[in-house]
Specification:
two-stranded antiparallel sheet, alpha+beta, 162 residues
């Protein structure tokens, strides 16, 4: 192969690489848009799946970023650190957040070297971003499976026009 043929082939390969890179970039943008659409749809379905008044029993560590509501002037807010045995109730849904109420809280105390659990019913309320709550609840395999079943059923019914 002569140098001019090598250069010609090299330049045509470079041009093909540029075209493929443009296609990869376009597909990447399209995939990002699809991922955002999927997440948006899942959050909409999740918001519909949550029933006002229903309770959720915490099965594992459940630390969420939330804003405590219903505080009076001068009251300090309490972190929504929840753990196994705690119970929350869904009290209100907004377009981007869900209001939860901590109805049962298990506190562990150490008295004379022994761990003692104490159950309280604080009725603390928090406003939680829907995505934050979705991420935490989907960590629980049982809730995740129930939600997946709900999504499949909902989309099947939509396909049937019901």
């Amino acid at each position: 192969m002569r140098i001019s043929e090598i250069d010609s082939k090299y330049n045509s390969n470079k041009e093909a690489i540029r075209e493929l890179q443009k296609q990869v970039a376009a597909l990447s943008v399209q995939n990002n848009e699809l991922a955002q659409l999927k997440e948006s749809k899942l959050l909409d379905y999740f918001s519909e799946w949550i029933e006002i008044g229903s309770e959720y029993h915490i099965n594992n560590y459940f630390n969420i970023k939330a804003v405590q509501t219903g505080l009076k002037a001068g009251q300090n807010s309490i972190s929504p650190f929840l753990k196994q045995g705690d119970i929350i109730q869904f009290t209100k849904k907004n377009p981007k957040s869900i209001i939860i109420k901590v109805t049962t809280k298990i506190n562990i105390k150490v008295v004379d070297g022994q761990r003692i659990s104490e159950t309280i019913h604080p009725n603390w309320t928090y406003r939680v971003d829907t995505k934050e709550l979705y991420d935490r609840i989907m960590r629980d395999s049982e809730s995740s499976e129930r939600f997946k079943t709900y999504v499949i059923r909902k989309e099947s019914l939509e396909l049937l026009g019901i």
